[in-house]
Amino acid sequence: MARYTGPKAKIARKFGEPIYGTIKSKKNYPPGQHGNSHRRKTSEYGIQLREKQKAKYTYGVLERQFRNLFEKASRMKGVKGEVLIQLLEQRLDNVVYRLGIAKTRDAARQLVSHRHIVVDGKVVNIPSFSVQPGQVVGVRERSKSLEVISDSVSAASHTKYAWLEWDKGSMSGKFLHVPQRADIPENIKEQLIVELYSK
After folding, report:
1. Burial classification of residue 106, based on how many CB atoms lie within 10 Å of its CB (0-12 exposed, 13-18 middle, 19 or more buried)
2. Cα–Cα distance between 88 and 68 in angstroms, integer?
3. CB-CB contact of 17 with 55 (8 Å)
4. Small ribosomal subunit protein uS4 N-terminal domain spans which residues (predicted)?
5. Which of 15, 30, 116, 159 has the CB geometry, 3.0–4.6 Å to 35, for a possible disulfide?
6. pLDDT for 55-81, tens place per residue?
């Protein structure tokens, strides 16, 4: 499946935010031939599209998956935009990243795809798998000695998110409950995404 594999600093500069974590760049203006020049005012559609692209790049989701998630959120109870962000947070690759098992969402997706991650003791290799409250996400027994995992786990802050509970001994974390929008740190204006898809 197609994924963005280009320069990550370019994406961070495009949105003016550290989409992929802290990326150092001396250029504090958007990329491209006219990045440093004064641009005309962005249209309402442009602002909404930009917000959708930011969410897609942040969570590493392609257009079809993103639209499917939006349609699923539309059918669920609650505020559409908030439910959409909550569904993105429940993705297995995102939970692995939040638990500190991987340093980035891309690395988390790779660990899941390569069968290093278990959910309730069973290997799950689908990054988009939706983790439900009460489920335990951990590292497969034979993968616990992997340097990339041990380095990430030792450097992570496991008390960062109230909806996750980390068990150091078993190298696993419990998904306690679906997080409230106010607790999710991503700087995404989800209402703009709802407005874009509602046109």
Report:
1. middle
2. 11
3. no
4. 3-89
5. 30
6. 998 998 999 999 999 999 999 999 999
